[in-house]
């Protein structure tokens, strides 16, 4: 399991797509996904646990959304 820390966003950030991406994960209800998206918008660090086999795909997806992150 890898932890990805969402640390901010760049111009063009798509908050609806981030909410949908997180909501597709089993550990995020829609309310949890929206709260995590709002936290990123507020400049708070949000840490997501991603299984080893899904890490690269998840990183590609968050890059396409305009997020800043770190492992």
Summarize the SSE layout with pairings.
Elements: E1 2-9, H1 15-23, H2 30-41, E2 46-50, H3 55-65, E3 67-70
Helix pairs in contact: 1-2
Please, could you describe this protein's structure?
This protein is an alpha+beta fold. It has a single domain, classed as 2-Layer Sandwich (Ribosomal Protein L30, Chain: A). The protein has three helices and three strands; from the N terminus they run E-H-H-E-H-E. It has a three-stranded antiparallel β-sheet with strand order 2-1-3, with helices on one face. The longest helix is centred in the middle third of the chain and has 12 residues. The N and C termini lie close together (11 Å). 15% of the residues are buried.
Structural features:
71 residues, alpha+beta, Ribosomal Protein L30, Chain: A
Return the CATH topology.
Answer: Ribosomal Protein L30, Chain: A
Largest sheet: 3 strands, antiparallel
Overall 3D shape: globular
Q: How are strands sequenced across the largest beta sheet?
A: 2-1-3
* Coarse structural class: alpha+beta
Q: What letter string, H or E per element, gives the SSE order?
A: EHHEHE
Uncertain runs with pLDDT below 50, 5 residues or more? Answer: none
Instruction: Give the radius of gyration.
Output: 11 Å
CATH class: Alpha Beta
Sheet-strand content, in percent, reads 15-25%
The overall average pLDDT, rounded, is 95
Number of helices: 3
Helix share, percent: 40-55%
In the CATH hierarchy, the architecture is 2-Layer Sandwich
The number of E-state strands comes to 3
Number of domains: 1
> What is the distance, rounded to the nearest whole angstrom, between the alpha carbons of the first and last residues?
11 Å
């Amino acid at each position: 399991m890898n932890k990805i820390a969402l640390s901010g966003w760049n111009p063009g950030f798509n908050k609806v797509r981030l909410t949908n991406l997180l909501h597709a994960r089993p550990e995020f209800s829609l309310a949890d996904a929206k709260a995590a998206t709002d936290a990123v918008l507020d400049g708070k660090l949000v840490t997501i646990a991603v299984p080893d086999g899904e890490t690269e795909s998840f990183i590609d997806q968050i890059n396409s959304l305009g997020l800043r992150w770190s492992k």
